[in-house]
Structures are given as C-alpha cells and as structure tokens.
Amino acid sequence: MCLVTVQVRVWRGRHVILAVSSCSAEYLHRNFIVLSQEQLPTAGVKLNDLKMDPSSPVSPATILEQTALRLGCSPADKKLAFHLDEEDELKHLRECFCVPKVKDLPPTDLSLVDGEESCVYFAGNSLGLQPRKVKTYLDEELDKWARTGVHGHFNGQRPWALADECILDLMAELVGAQRHEVALMNGLTVNLHLQMLSFFKPTPRRYKILLEARAFPSDHYAVESQLRLHGLDVEKCMLMMQPREGEETLRIEDILAVIEKEGDSIAVILFSGVQYYTGQLFDIPRITKAGQEKGCFVGFDLAHAVGNVEIHLHDWGVDFACWCSYKYLNSGAGGLAGAYIHEKHSQSIKPALIGWWGHEFKTRFLMENKLQLSKGINGFRLSNPPILLVCALQASLEVFGQTTMKALRRKSILLTGYLEYLIKHYYNEDKTNPGKPFVKIITPSRIEERGCQLTLSFSLPIKSVFKELEKRGVACDMREPNALRVAPVPLYNSFRDVHRFIEILGSAITSSKQTANNTALSGSY
Ligand SMILES: Cc1ncc(COP(=O)(O)O)c(C=O)c1O
C-alpha cells in the first residue's frame, strides 16, 4: 500500500487533482481527471461558466478559489479583483454612467481619503447612477420645446404624445412581457393602487390580501387603504406573513403552506419580487402558480427586482405587477414607473378610474367623450406621458439594450458572490474570540434566492460603521433597525469596487470599535 497526498479541487463539478506527492501515473489516470496547474488556464474557468441553474454545482466561491489558484494568490488578494475585471465582458458598460467622485459626496472626510477617486457606489438598490446619455436626450427635448413649442407633441424622433411608447419594447424585454402588457406611467404606488382597484374585488367568501409582514411601507399602506375603501376590517383581512421565529427571511414552503390553507378566502396575493430590506428573491413562478390554483389573483411589486434579476412575467402567468425605475433602472429620482397586466385579462379586467389617455389612440383626439377604452394595461393610462422622465429612462434602457439580463445576472452572481466571500473571509463570527467584530449576512446565501443586494448586520453599532463608511467614500444605505444594504450593480460596479469596499469596511470597523471602546472607557469613570 502506498500513501499519497493529493491536492484536489472541485472544478466544473468534478474533482480535479492539482498536485500529488507520490503515486503512480497509471493509478492516477485510471481514477481521476488529472490537470496540471498549467492546463487550468487553458481550460479556463470563465465568468461565463457560472450558471444560475440551481443544479449546477459550480458556486461563486469555487470560481473565485480556482481563479485565485491559477493566479497564484489568495482569493482575498486584490490581484483577483483586477483579473476578474479584466475578464469581465460587460466592463465597458460602466463608461455609460456618471460615477460620483469621493470628494463630491457630502459625508466624505477628505482627511481620510483621496477625493479624486471614484466613490464605491453600492446604492443602486436605492437610486441608480445617472446614465451619461440622459443630458443629451433631455437637451434634445428642451431644445425642441424651445424651438417648436406645441409642435413637439407629434414631431421629432420622440414625439411627446407617444414618447412612452418609444421605449416600451426595451421595458417589456426586461420584465419578460409582451409590449401590449406593459405601460409606463405614474409612480409605483399610484400604479399599485390603480391595479388593486381592479384586481381586489372582495366577496363574502374571498376578501383577504396576503402580503409580507415587512412589506415596504407604501405597499403596506396601499393594501390597508384598499381594504378600508371597501369597508373591510384590516385586522381580519390583511394576512401578513412573518418569517419563522429566529429567522430573517421567509421560506417558500411556508408561503405555499399559507396559500394552501388560506387560499380560498384570499382575493389577492401581493409580494415583492426582491424584498427591499433582506434582499430575498422570491420564487415568483411558484407563488403565482400556487395562488392561481387556489383562485387568487397574484401580483408583484418589482421595485427591487427589475433590472436586477431575470423576470418572465408573461411566461410565469403573473396577473399584474408594478415597479419604479429609479433603482436598478437608473431613471433618476421620481422616475417614470411601470405597470403590467397579463394579456389573459385584457378583456376582463377594466380600470376603475379612467382618463383620456386610456381612450384608444385612433379616436382620442376627436374629443367626443364617448369612451373607446384601450385593452389591458393601456386602458389604465390616465395622463399624457412626461417627456422629460421618458428621456432619462430611455438613456438607461438603451444601456440594458446593449446586453441581456442573462449576461448581467451571470456577472451579478459572481460580483455579489465575491462580496459575500470576502465578508465571510474577514468577518465570520468566531465564537472562540468574542472580542472580534463580525458581520452577519441576512440575505439568503442561495443564489436563486437573492439578487445583487446583500443586507448586513454588525456586532458593532451599525450607525457608527455606516458613518465611517460614508466618511471614506462609500455610498450605501442603512435601514432601521440594524441593516446595511450594499448592492454591487453589474451594469456599473466592478470587482475592484467590491475589493475596495472590503478594504474600507476594515477601516470603518476598526474605527467603530475604537469609538465603542472609548465610549465604554469614558462611561466607566
Ligand atoms: C419595494 C418598494 N415599493 C414601493 C416603493 C415606493 O415607490 P414610489 O415612491 O415610487 O411610489 C418603494 C420605494 O423605494 C419600494 O422600494
């Protein structure tokens, strides 16, 4: 018998031998796939090898470790970040955006950082960066307005009266819908109300609305007020799903169990696509199917999902959905929102409130006051489209048009996986060292259950960590009670951004720990 030591790595789901101390070549080749270190680069684990397919055994951590091994460095070395950026086929898209300089962010402390550097912008989950083309498109329309006044309504490449329709194809593509199933109008909350007015028709048997206990406040208030509008008892009719005791996110089996148990009395199920606080990506097709099998309408607030994850509203049969465009769609604060209704409802679901923009285009301007309602979501449009908001959204959607959500998602999985890897590498809780600060990731670790955002909680006071990050040129956001949301966005963030964030987080944690120690010391006197 001979004793051999082998260095084995999992590569593309198979065990690969990288080094062997003593063993016969014949034995090795009979029992293993053998690759030398030199062969690995040619066999190259590319970003493209990373699949969202849950059955794929290749995890971001494996890719990162393999790539670091090829580079001969630790996965925590910034050499890996530079390499991944080099390999990134979408890296040119960053140039389409204005990335703020550190010195221009109000909380920056210039005694701590180089103000000329680009900031680490991880706040795309809140407000996306400005696409460079926005100014050009706005200027074009302002100029047209100045030169031609009212003639702009039906002239030029973006006739104002049809402006929203000029970008519908790009928008519909991102949510996996047919063009006629999508409208661009209003703000998210307004659209949610308009849709609820038509989908929530309570009867004595079916009168409840199911939503998450920690839904975004606007959704919560919208549901509450819709129930009140029908004179219903909010306590009885608003079914709110809580995570299990001691857990932060909802389990799909629990959601399905509630639908199974309560479904007969539920009129509408309203979930977010990606949860704003935890970053959890819900299983939209399964929730939709389960709800519809029980006779419920199923709708989604896609504020944090659109432009972040792949969405196939039409194929999944989702009844209705709405979203804002200022987060991952980069249309600027208060940007033009989207709404979708599946074509299967185009004859049966009518708007409760009607304006002139819901009237068929062909006869709209005859002003006869005899309504010819457009079908489906188009009948829900109330007012003429805001051209300046369309310009901003167009600039962003055209950047998305240069790639696909599949490609963005592929990069996103690795980018966020890299962030997760480094956080765990440096800040896992060490029970044997209770004084060591640690970071907990609230967002699910399964890639199918999250988008690009990670939500973090800290063993140190979060306000202090957040403040220290902001002083050093990181843009991210803090949410009460104890969450820091960080979103590396594949359209414009780089692997180097992630590495820089981790470096800065190190300084922020050291400084926060120091402050906490000083406070404790001064408190003891
Ligand atoms: C999940 C979610 N829903 C609704 C809203 C409210 O959107 P609006 O103010 O555009 O109506 C937001 C805003 O951030 C949100 O994150």
From TrEMBL:
GO cellular-component term (any): cytoplasm
EC number: 3.7.1.3
Keywords associated with the record: Acetylation, Cytoplasm, Hydrolase, Pyridine nucleotide biosynthesis, Pyridoxal phosphate
InterPro entries: Kynureninase (IPR010111), PyrdxlP-dep_Trfase (IPR015424), PyrdxlP-dep_Trfase_major (IPR015421), PyrdxlP-dep_Trfase_small (IPR015422)
Leading EC class: hydrolase
Catalytic activity: 3-hydroxy-L-kynurenine + H2O = 3-hydroxyanthranilate + L-alanine + H(+); L-kynurenine + H2O = anthranilate + L-alanine + H(+)
Stored Gene3D superfamilies: Aspartate Aminotransferase, domain 1, Type I PLP-dependent aspartate aminotransferase-like (Major domain)
Location, primary (coarse class): cytoplasm
Domain of life: Eukaryota
N6-(pyridoxal phosphate)lysine modification, residue list: 327
Subcellular location: Cytoplasm
Family annotation (Pfam families): KYNU_C
Single Gene Ontology BP annotation: L-tryptophan catabolic process to kynurenine
Cofactor: pyridoxal 5'-phosphate
Residues bound to pyridoxal 5'-phosphate: 188-189, 216-219, 272, 301, 304, 326, 356, 384
Pathway involvement of the protein, from the record: Amino-acid degradation; L-kynurenine degradation; L-alanine and anthranilate from L-kynurenine: step 1/1; Cofactor biosynthesis; NAD(+) biosynthesis; quinolinate from L-kynurenine: step 2/3
Keyword Acetylation: yes
One of the record's GO molecular function terms: kynureninase activity
Physiological role: Catalyzes the cleavage of L-kynurenine (L-Kyn) and L-3-hydroxykynurenine (L-3OHKyn) into anthranilic acid (AA) and 3-hydroxyanthranilic acid (3-OHAA), respectively. Has a preference for the L-3-hydroxy form. Also has cysteine-conjugate-beta-lyase activity.
PANTHER family: KYNURENINASE
Family (UniProt): Belongs to the kynureninase family.
Assembly and binders: Homodimer.
Protein name: Kynureninase
Origin species: Calidris pygmaea (Spoon-billed sandpiper)
Gene, per the UniProt record: KYNU
